[in-house]
Fold this sequence. Notes:
Alkaline Phosphatase, subunit A; 8-stranded mixed beta sheet; 15 helices
Amino acid sequence: xxxxxxxxxxxxxxxxxxxxxxxxxxxxxxxxxxxxxxxxxxxxxxxxxxxxxxxxxxxxxxxxxxxxxxxxxxxxxxxxxxxxxxxxxxxxxxxxxxxxxxxxxxxxxxxxxxxxxxxxxxxxxxxxxxxxxxxxxxxxxxxxxxxxxxxxxxxxxxxxxxxxxxxxxxxxxxxxxxxxxxxxxxxxxxxxxxxxxxxxxxxxxxxxxxxxxxxxxxxxxxxxxxxxxxxxxxxxxxxxxxxxxxxxxxxxxxxxxxxxxxxxxxxxxxxxxxxxxxxxxxxxxxxxxxxxxxxxxxxxxxxxxxxxxxxxxxxxxxxxxxxxxxxxxxxxxxxxxxxxxxxxxxxxxxxxxxxxxxxxxxxxxxxxxxxxxxxxxxxxxxxxxxxxxxxxxxxxxxxxxx
Length: 402
């Protein structure tokens, strides 16, 4: 299989043309009844529709047809990194995103506070999305956990999320998640696939045993689940493979972490979409590439709230006149995966994707939607090729061969 980065390293050209990638997390959706609209089709998006008439549409496949991606693989694909080749656990993304410096002997784990009933079954996988202030206090309690021969770090992230890092020689990260991804059942036990990972699983089990005692009197967050056991990853940077000085403007730590791992500079802090766009305007002359992440199209989809996802899409649409005033050479609008409110989860469905530049080939599409994207000139394509399309439209790729 061809290595796209080998080509972009060889062919990239430096110029002053800007690329802006706007990512609405979990953008793609489904109708809730036969023949009905998706969330994107139900939303009033006059600005995105106008851009669709100028640009070219298509459907990006985050990993491979039929494969449902996590947020890590979904974003890696958008950034042009083959998500099959580059596998990054969620724990490493969360830890890096909050500024935790991972060592070579670390295993990081993304944790969710959850609610257990008296029988030990999960009744809420996110503990009611407790506020960050509350989860930070619980993290302080969990820092009292001690495990012989292992350094344990517990750090707050946002809302119901936290990060646990185990530091000791000989740990592995091939440990199964303890989140069963459903309610009405107990959390799973950590299970390691090899000798080093079995050692990690034993450490994780002891951590969870002590955590259950510490959190027992909490009304909501009385336990936690573990996801994405991960060692420190190594990826080539945007500067290396694309010749781009890149910046990320995101609210949630995980997405900051992924951007940082591919060499983007993390800008902020920001707390709202308004603040993100204001920061983009402020620093626009300082970078070549901007990744702007909008989370709430995903969380509303996971909550199964069709109407709320429509509202978030409309809020996302409202900022585009300000972005257009910056006149980026290339503007991309897409998502890392689909999160239909009908399914209440990530899904395998391709993601509507829009590319606008002064040298793209308009395809006659009239609106930014799933149905229109099916007719678009980009067709169905793997997300890992989006960056090479962006570079080409920005005049940042030279000719291959004589």
